[in-house]
Design a protein that fits this description.
The chain is α/β, with parallel strands linked by helices and 362 residues long. It has ten helices and 14 strands. It has a seven-stranded mixed beta sheet with strand order 2-10-9-8-5-3-4, with helices on both faces. The protein starts with 5 loop residues before the first strand and ends with a helix. Bound molecules: pyridoxal-5'-phosphate.
Length: 362
């Protein structure tokens, strides 16, 4: 294979080609240092600038002010599931969890394991085909936070609203839709994302949170498990995942150059509409998993009416350079992940293939 294909993988996932080329051009000699970014000290001025700009661009894109701080941690979003209850919840003030899919279940399981988790709502009975509605959220008044997963990567559902919590801090796993649309980020107290879906390579978690929260980790926690350690030391207490942060900075700058979140949101809505259109106009040949009001713009999940055709669908798509569309084993069917960096042309090609495949196989 000599050409790049269209990569619909759920994560790690497609990155902007312009960014990859820029990274390639800087690799041997990063900004006149005569070394690559992979080889320089995380205390070197050339890296400090990368670190500072990545943080500044992210806050600017999210429209957040001085009461928020950006903190980079390792261990993936999955480790964050445990760090959050360790840092913020207690038996008197448990974390309250809205269950909307596999990752929110895993987040809740960590809090429950520590004896500090409660369930605010769950749509499991409906096979997670939708996210909980505002009126279904039962947040304990003494809860330390309400935790939601804004976009459910596996089931292909997404919140279309920001929950009202009556003063309880709002925490969100935004791993798979962060910076994909304009959003009221300022209504959230703690936002985190494993960046390998929409913002960069695997290896770093982006946390954007109220300073007042980050400052108050329990002193009895080990140093590296306290958010306050990261906050106080500008995420440079130990060696951070330098290359991943560098890539996040590049992708954030790319988003700005594309016209920011407004442009991203418009393009992502257009892309999603093309694929849902192919599902909805298929006369039942394709069947979407997500309920109408909860459809994700990032992960489009659907089945073929005739499940026996699914292998053929995947194989023929692959022949056309459309890769990574097999669904997660827990849901089955297909899933096309169309993050920020997936070009419109790739989605157009997939939608055209869906129509062609339907006509050839009905
Ligand atoms: C992929 C994903 C995770 C898990 O991320 P890791 O960094 O692999 O731990 C958590 N939450 C959501 C919403 C995801 O999409």
């Amino acid at each position: 294979m000599n050409e790049r294909i269209y990569n619909f993988n759920p994560g790690p996932a497609v990155l902007p080609e312009e960014v990859l080329k820029e990274v390639q051009s800087e690799l041997l000699n990063f900004r006149g240092t005569g070394m690559s970014i992979l080889e320089i000290s995380h205390r070197a001025p050339a890296y400090e600038e990368v670190h500072r700009w990545a943080k500044a661009d992210i806050k600017e894109l999210m429209g957040l002010g001085d009461d928020y701080d950006v903190v980079f941690t390792a261990g993936g979003a999955s480790q964050t599931f445990a760090l959050i209850p360790l840092n913020f919840a207690s038996e008197e003030h448990p974390g309250s969890y809205a269950l909307s899919g596999s990752f929110s279940e895993k987040a809740y399981a960590e809090a429950a394991h520590l004896g500090v988790g409660t369930v605010a709502a769950s749509t499991k009975e409906e096979d997670y085909a939708r996210v909980p509605a505002q009126e279904e959220l039962h947040i304990a008044p003494h809860a330390a936070y309400l935790h939601i997963c804004l976009n459910n990567t596996i089931y292909g559902t997404e919140y279309g609203y920001t929950p009202k919590t009556n003063g309880v801090p709002l925490f969100a796993d935004m791993s798979s839709d962060i910076l994909s649309r304009p959003w009221d980020f300022g209504s959230y107290d703690f936002i985190y994302a494993g960046v390998q879906k929409n913002l960069g390579p695997a290896g770093v978690v982006l946390n954007v949170a109220k300073k007042s929260l980050l400052e108050k980790s329990p002193a009895e926690l080990p140093t590296m498990l306290r958010y306050s350690t990261f906050q106080k030391n500008d995420s440079l207490y130990n060696t951070p995942p330098v290359f991943a942060i560098y890539m996040v900075g590049k992708v954030a700058a790319w988003i700005k150059a594309q016209g920011g979140l407004a442009a991203m949101g418009k393009r992502n809505a257009e892309k999603a509409a093309l694929l849902y259109g192919a599902v909805d106009s298929s006369d039942g040949f394709y069947c979407g998993h997500a309920a109408e009001g909860s459809r994700s713009r990032m992960n489009i999940t659907f089945r073929l009416r005739d499940a026996a055709l699914e292998q053929k669908f995947v194989a023929e798509a692959k022949e056309r350079g459309l890769s990574g569309i097999k669904g997660h084993r827990s849901v089955g069917g297909m899933r096309a992940s169309i993050y920020n960096a997936m070009p419109l042309a790739g989605v157009e090609k997939l939608a055209a293939f869906m129509d062609e495949f339907r006509r050839a196989n009905r």
